[in-house]
Design brief:
2 copies of one chain form a homodimer. With 269 residues, chain A is an alpha/beta fold. Helix content of chain A is 35%, strand content 18%. Chain A has a domain of 103 residues: HAD superfamily/HAD-like (Rossmann fold). In chain A, strands 5-4-1-12-13-14 form a 6-stranded parallel beta sheet. In chain A, strand 7, helix 5 and strand 8 form a beta-alpha-beta unit. Chains A, B: Phosphatase that hydrolyzes imidodiphosphate, 3-phosphohistidine and 6-phospholysine. Has broad substrate specificity and can also hydrolyze inorganic diphosphate, but with lower efficiency.
C-alpha cells in the first residue's frame, strides 16, 4: 500500500471521508464506531490537512446525523458535512424549482426554507417507510402532469443493510419513476460530479490535491476519480472482496480501514 | 383504411383481440363496453374466423375477468383467453421454478397448483395495493439471495388510468427490482414474442394469417408485428393522436374502433 501511494500522497492537502462504513457501521441503536476511526479523524485535524465529510445520508437532517456521530466519539460538526439534501436545496433555489418531496420524515426539516406550493419537480430520497403505494403514485402523478418532468434523486443506491435485513434504496424507486415517466433523474449526491466538486470547493482544495476515502467502489471511488481525485477503498463497511475485480473501477490503493489510510498519508507528508 | 387493408385482409383466418380499451374501458364499477364492440365480437364468431382474446390483465383470474365481460354483454369464455398468469404457470412448471408471488390478491388462485415452497424465482404482476414497502423489500430479498436471480414479470406496463387517477403499473416495479438486483426480468405477456406465439398456437392460425387488434401502439401493435402478424390500432382506450407519430412502430392500419375493423375485414373476405 505504501508503495502504491508513494509519490502522490505527499502532495495531498485535503481528505474527503465517506461516513457510513468508514467512520461507523449503521444499525438499530445508532450504530457502532469502526475501530480506530475516531482517533484517525482527530489525527487528521491535528495534522493541518483539510477535512470534509461527504455522505449520501438522507434519513436524517445533518444536525441529527452529526449529533449521532458525536455520541459515537467523533469530532465532527454540521459545517464540515456535505450531504445531498442541502445540495438539492441550492439547486432548487437556483432554478426556481418547487419540489414535491418523497423523502424520509426526518429529512423534511432540511427543506424548511424551500417553497413547496404548486410543485414543478419531484425530489426523491431514501424515504424508507414513506415508500408506500399511495406516495409513489402521488409522486408519479406530479411528474407525469408536467410538460417536461423534472426528477431529482438524492443518490442512486441500490440497497443497504439494516439489522432486520436488506432494504431497497432510493435508486430502485428512482428507476421506477424514470421508467414510468420516460425521464432521466438528475442525481444529487455521490457519484455525481457536481456533488464532489461542491465538497472540494467547501474544503478549498483542488481535486489533484485531495483524496477520497470510502467503502463504495462505484459511488465513492469511481465518482471521486472521475472528478480528478485519488481515491482509496477501505476494507470496512459494504466492501466485498469481489470489489477488487470490479470491471470499471480500480482504487488508487486499498487500505484495511481509515486508521491505516491516515497512518500512511501522515507518514508520507 | 379499406385501401390500406385491401390485398392482405382477405387472407385472414384469425383475429387476436386485446380486451381493455378494445372491448371495454375499465373503471370503478367494472367498466363500460365500447360502442359496437359486443356486436363486433358476435359478427366475428358468425363469420367463421378464428378468434382469441389476448390480454395483459393480471388483477383477476380469467374466470372473474370473463364473468365481468359477460356481464357487459360479450360472448367470451375462459377457454378463449390468453393471459399472462397461465402462461407464467406453464413456464414455472416447465423449468421447475417455485415462485415467490408479488401479485394482486385476486390473481393468486391462478397459481393454486404451483409449488411455492422454498422459492427460487419471483413473479411480479400488477399487485396494486400489494405494492407495499414491506412486500417490495421481501421480493427483493428473495431475489438477491439467489445465486442467479430469476425475475418473471407479467407485463411491462408503465401506468394506467383508474377513476381516481393514474396508477403505476407492473413495469415500474419490475424496473426497481431489475436495478436493485442487476438482473433482467423475463417478460410474460404482451409484447413478448413467446406470448403472442402461444396465443396463435391456441387459435391454430399462423402469424401471416392473423391480425392483432389493440389500443397499445407498443405492446399490441409492435409486439404482434415482430411475430409476423399484421396489426391494427383502434382509436379507443389508451390511444392518443401522438401514437400516429411513434418513432418505431407503425400499424398496418388505423381504425376508429373494433366495429369498424370488423366491418372492413368481413367485407374483404
Amino acid at each position: 500500500v505504501r508503495a502504491a501511494m508513494a509519490g502522490w500522497a505527499r502532495a495531498v492537502r485535503g481528505l474527503l471521508l465517506d461516513v457510513s462504513g468508514v467512520l461507523y457501521d449503521s444499525g438499530a441503536d445508532g450504530g457502532v464506531p469502526i475501530a480506530g476511526s475516531a482517533e484517525a479523524v482527530r489525527r487528521i485535524k491535528e495534522s493541518g490537512l483539510r477535512l470534509r465529510f461527504c455522505t449520501n445520508e438522507t434519513q436524517a437532517t445533518r444536525e441529527n446525523f452529526v449529533k449521532k456521530l458525536r455520541g459515537l466519539g467523533f469530532d465532527i460538526s454540521v459545517a464540515e458535512v456535505t450531504a445531498p439534501a442541502p445540495a438539492a436545496c441550492s439547486i432548487l433555489k437556483e432554478r426556481g424549482l418547487r419540489p414535491h418531496l418523497l423523502v424520509h420524515d426526518d429529512l423534511i426539516p432540511e427543506f424548511a426554507e424551500i417553497d413547496k406550493t404548486n410543485p414543478n419537480c419531484v425530489v426523491i430520497g431514501d424515504a424508507a417507510e414513506n415508500f408506500t403505494y399511495a406516495n409513489l403514485n402521488e409522486a408519479f402523478r406530479v411528474l407525469i402532469g408536467m410538460e417536461k418532468p423534472v426528477l431529482i434523486s438524492l443518490g442512486t443506491g441500490r440497497y443497504y443493510k439494516e439489522t432486520d435485513g436488506l432494504k431497497l434504496d432510493v435508486g430502485a424507486y428512482m428507476k421506477a419513476l424514470e421508467y414510468a415517466c420516460d425521464v432521466q433523474a438528475e442525481v444529487v449526491g455521490k457519484p455525481a460530479k457536481r456533488f464532489f466538486e461542491s465538497a472540494l470547493k467547501e474544503m478549498g482544495v483542488p481535486p489533484e490535491q485531495a483524496i477520497m476515502i470510502g467503502d463504495d467502489i462505484v459511488s465513492d471511488v469511481g465518482g471521486a476519480q472521475r472528478c480528478g481525485m485519488r481515491a482509496l477503498q477501505v476494507r470496512t463497511g459494504k466492501y466485498r472482496p469481489s470489489d477488487e475485480n470490479h470491471p470499471d473501477v480500480k482504487p488508487d490503493a486499498y487500505v484495511n480501514n481509515l486508521a491505516e489510510a491516515v497512518d500512511i498519508i501522515l507518514q508520507e507528508l
